[in-house]
Specification:
Two copies of one chain form a homodimer.
Chain A lengths: L7 E7 L3 H9 L4 E7 L3 H9 L5 E3 L2 H5 L4 E4 L3 H10 L1 H4 L5 E4 L5 H7 L7 E7 L20 E6 L5 H13 L3 E4 L2 H32 L2 H5 L2 H7 L6 H9 L2 H23 L3 H27 L3
Parallel strand pairs in A: 1-2, 1-4, 2-3, 4-5, 5-6, 7-8
Antiparallel strand pairs in A: 6-7
C-alpha cells in the first residue's frame, strides 16, 4: 500500500473529523506515531479506540509540540485563528505545517508570518463525502483526487518536496498554484454552485409559501440542484467570507451567462438558444466522462 | 400487482422510449391489447420482441384507430403537433387521450380543440431515469411518483375518473391542477434548475478558456450542479420554448434571492448571511427526508 518515500517520525492531525481521520488512516504506515488534537471527547475516544491515532488530546500545544509534521484539518476560520494566534510558538523548528482549509489566501498569508524555520504550506484536497465525523474516516478518501498545494512565505524548496511526498503518500494528485488562483478556481466550481443551490432553494421556498404543492412535485433534478444548500451553514459562511472577492467576480461572470440565456429565451430565438446549450452540454458530457474515469481508475 | 379498477380493451402508446415503454409495462395487466407507435424501427422491434407491446407500427393512424385509450409519450413539440394536426381525425369517439409532456398549457389548449367526444386530459408524471430508450423500460418507474393531471375543454367528469384510474394503475400519486399552475410549478423545480445548471457550466467553460485546470479540480459539488446541463438540448429547448413566461417569472424571482445573498456577502454581514442560509438549509433538509421516505416506501 505504501507509496512514495514520505516518512515522518511524529504526525499531529489537528481536527479529528472525516477529513482528519481519513488523513491519519492514509498516513498510518508513513508515521511512527500519530497524535490527534480534537476538542470533542467522543471523537478523541473513537479515534484512539479504533487505532486511527495513537494518542489524542484537546490541548493544541501538547499535541503538536513533539511533531515533525502537523496537518490542520479544521474549518477555515479555526485554521486561520490557530495559525495567527497560537501555533507558531508551539511548533519545533523544521516542522512541516500543512492545512486542508477550503480557501487559501487568508491562511497562506497567516502562514507567511510564522517564525522562520517552520515549513508552512497551504493545502486543499478536492474530496469529501456525504457523511461527516471521524467514524466515517476512509483511508482511500484522498486516493486519485486533486490535492492543491499553495506556497507561502514560509515555503522553501524543501517544504515543497516534503508536501509533495505527503500528497503522494495519500495517492492524491498534486496541483501547485498560488493561493489567489486556487481561490478563484474553487469560487467557480464550489462556492458559486453553493450560492446557486441556496438561491434556488430559497426561490422554491418562496413559491412554497403560496403553493406548497411545489415541494411535492419536486423530483430528481431538484434533488441534485439543492444538495449543496444542505451543507453546514457555519462552514459555508466561513468559506464564503474568506473568499468574498473571487465569489463576487464569479457571480458577475455567471450573471452574464444567465442574462444571455434569458435573452434568447424571451426573444424566442430557439436557434440561438440551441447554439448556446449545445457546446455547454458537450462541455459537461466531456467533463463527467473524464471525472468518472478518474474515479474508476482510482487514478 | 393489479391495483384499481382501470381496464382498457386496446391501449395505444405513442412513443416507445423509456417513458412510453415503462407505461406499457406498468399497464400490461390492465389492457387486453397494447399497440406501440414509434418511428424508430429498432425500438419497435425491441418492444415487440420483449413483449412490452403486442404490436408496433410507425403509422399513427393505424396505431390509434382501434384504441380506446391513447397515451402520447413523445417530446412536447411532437405531442403538440400530433394533437393540433392529426390525431383528432384518427381517434374513435369516446377514446381517452392523455399525454405525458413536460409542459401542459400549449398541449391542453390544443386538446381543447379536438372533436367533441374525445376524452382528452393533460398529464405529466414527475419521474425519469438517467438512462433513456425503450430498453431501459421499468414497470415501477411511475410507482409512488407524482402524476399531474390537467383538465382541458375536452375533459368531462368521466374523462377525469378514467385518467385517475390510469394513474392508480401505475401506482402513481395523482395531482389535479390547471395547466398554468402546473407550468409555473415545474418552471420552479425543473426548468429554472436546468437553466442555472447550464449557465453554471457555461461560466466554468469560460473560466476554462483562461485556466483549464478548473476542470481538473471540479468535484462532487460541481458534478451534481452540472448534471442537468447534460440533458438533451432539443428536448429542453422544446420545454423552455413552451413555457417561456413561467420560466421568465421564476428567473426574476431567483434573481431577487441571488441579489440578496450577494449583498450580504459583499457587505460582509456574516450574521445576516447565516440567517438567510439557515432556513434555506432547513427547507432542503426537510424536503429531502420526505422525498427519500417517499421513495423508500414506494408510496
Amino acid at each position: 500500500m505504501s507509496s512514495g518515500g514520505f516518512k515522518t517520525r511524529h504526525l499531529a492531525v489537528v481536527g479529528l473529523g472525516l477529513m482528519g481521520g481519513s488523513l491519519a488512516l492514509a498516513l498510518r504506515e508513513h508515521a511512527d506515531t500519530i497524535t490527534g488534537v480534537e476538542l470533542n471527547a467522543e471523537a478523541r475516544q473513537y479515534a484512539v479506540e479504533n487505532k486511527i491515532v495513537d494518542a489524542a488530546t484537546d490541548d493544541l500545544r501538547e499535541g503538536v509540540a513533539q511533531a515533525d509534521t502537523v496537518i490542520l484539518a479544521a474549518p477555515v476560520r479555526s485554521i486561520q485563528a490557530m495559525v495567527e494566534r497560537r501555533i507558531g510558538s508551539y511548533l519545533r523548528s523544521n516542522t512541516l505545517l500543512i492545512d486542508i482549509g477550503s480557501t487559501k489566501r487568508d491562511i497562506c498569508e497567516a502562514m507567511g508570518k510564522l517564525p522562520v524555520g517552520i515549513h508552512a504550506i497551504g493545502g486543499h484536497p478536492m474530496t469529501g463525502k456525504e457523511v461527516s465525523g471521524v467514524e466515517s474516516s476512509d483511508k482511500n478518501l484522498y486516493r486519485g483526487r486533486p490535492f492543491v498545494l499553495c506556497p507561502t512565505r514560509r515555503t522553501t524548496p524543501a517544504t515543497r518536496l516534503r508536501a509533495l511526498g505527503l500528497v503522494q503518500a495519500l495517492a492524491a494528485v498534486p496541483f501547485e498554484m498560488e493561493a489567489d488562483r486556487h481561490d478563484h478556481l474553487v469560487a467557480a466550481i464550489s462556492h458559486l454552485p453553493y450560492i446557486l443551490s441556496s438561491a434556488l432553494v430559497a426561490t422554491v421556498a418562496k413559491e412554497g409559501q403560496n403553493d406548497p404543492t411545489v415541494w411535492e412535485l419536486a423530483a430528481g433534478g431538484f434533488r441534485d440542484m439543492s444538495r449543496l444548500a444542505g451543507q453546514d451553514v457555519q462552514m459555508m459562511g466561513d468559506i464564503l467570507s474568506t473568499n468574498t472577492q473571487a465569489v463576487a467576480t464569479l457571480l458577475a461572470l455567471f450573471r452574464v451567462q444567465l442574462a444571455m440565456l434569458e435573452a434568447m429565451l424571451i426573444s424566442r430565438d430557439d436557434q440561438q438558444l440551441a447554439e448556446f446549450l449545445r457546446p455547454t452540454r458537450e462541455a459537461r458530457v466531456n467533463w463527467i466522462q473524464k471525472y468518472e474515469n478518474g474515479h474508476k481508475n482510482g487514478k
